[in-house]
Amino acid sequence: MARKIANDKILIGVIIVGIILLVKFRGQNISIPIIDDGFFDGSSPEEEKGLQIAKDKFHGCMLKAAKSYYNESTKFFEEFAKCIKKHIGIDTSEMDNFSNYFFGEKKMFLPMKGEDDECKWLTIGIGGVASAEELFLKKYPQCSVFGADPADTGNFSSIGQLRPFGVGIEDTNIDLTVMINGSYTKKVMKVVSLTNLLDDLVKTRFVHYLTIDIEGFEYIILRELVGNGKFAHSDIVFCQIDAELHHPKFPKAHSSIKKLNAVQFMLDFLQISSPYIPIFNVPYLRHPHQKVTFVNVVDPRCKRVFKPQSYFGKK
């Protein structure tokens, strides 16, 4: 009983001290600091302001290009690349280039600037080539590499963990056109959902690097990551995405891809609420497809590791 009384007295004393301090400072121009996201991701107000200005200007530029070339994706992407260069303006010399040496394919990413011992790289669509992953591991040996492809996986299993499946928005079997030994072949393939792949293979839904090249189906997966998409509220985070966006009308395109409008996809994927901005875009192959790198500029952990905001502090 005596101990309870003593504890009550201590509690009352703490409350009284709190009231005294509140009354004392109430009339003075003293504010209690509030910890914001900048504290957690290392960004400064100047960097955040610069990033937001760049994002807004890019978005306006992209909308103008879409209005002019909504049904002409190749011309749209020519303007889209100019918008990136003018308003995002991160020079390729400041990026990591993990080239696949396959028709000059470039996989461009912002370099890691902060430590993260649980760094993950995921390749969806290997296509028999793993040069980029090998270069990546040489620079970042502390990271882990994972991959999925239903057909030609090359020597990927020697450098990373592998699943011989296609990847989609749900578990199913589908008639796919896949590359086997350098040529395209139609086969019925097992497809697993992105969430199941992350949970079963990568063991996390937070991935630092995603590279995706799945003959047009990349549109289907990527659009579900933003807005009201199926994966947008599934705790999935990709810090950086290297995507090969196939021309919807390329000869081997699946019927479900041929009607897709690539310009509308970009408008949806980079909508105002999207956590991503594009930092790189070049045409690829003769169709042409488009190589685009998207960077997450919202997630605090991504911002700590890659510091995308730091490129905008002086703009």
What does this structure look like?
- It comes from Panagrolaimus davidi.
- InterPro entries: FkbM_mtfrase.
- This is Methyltransferase FkbM domain-containing protein.
- The chain is of the alpha/beta class and 315 residues long.
- It has a single domain (43-312), classed as Rossmann fold, CATH 3.40.50.
- Helix content is 36%, strand content 23%.
- It has helices at residues 2-26, 37-41, 45-68, 73-88, 131-139, 194-202, 218-222, 255-258, 262-269, 300-306, and strands at residues 96-97, 108-109, 120-124, 144-148, 161-163, 166-168, 172-180, 183-193, 206-212, 237-245, 276-284, 289-296.
- The strands form three sheets. The chain has a seven-stranded mixed beta sheet with strand order 5-4-3-9-10-12-11. A three-stranded mixed beta sheet has the order 6-8-7. It has a two-stranded antiparallel ribbon with strand order 1-2.
- Helix 3 (45-68) runs antiparallel to helix 4.
Topology:
Blueprint: H1 2-26, H2 37-41, H3 45-68, H4 73-88, E1 96-97, E2 108-109, E3 120-124, H5 131-139, E4 144-148, E5 161-163, E6 166-168, E7 172-180, E8 183-193, H6 194-202, E9 206-212, H7 218-222, E10 237-245, H8 255-258, H9 262-269, E11 276-284, E12 289-296, H10 300-306
Parallel strand pairs: 3-4, 3-9, 4-5, 6-8, 9-10
Antiparallel strand pairs: 1-2, 7-8, 10-12, 11-12
Helix pairs in contact: 3-4
Domain Methyltransferase FkbM: 142-270
Organism: Panagrolaimus davidi
Protein name: Methyltransferase FkbM domain-containing protein
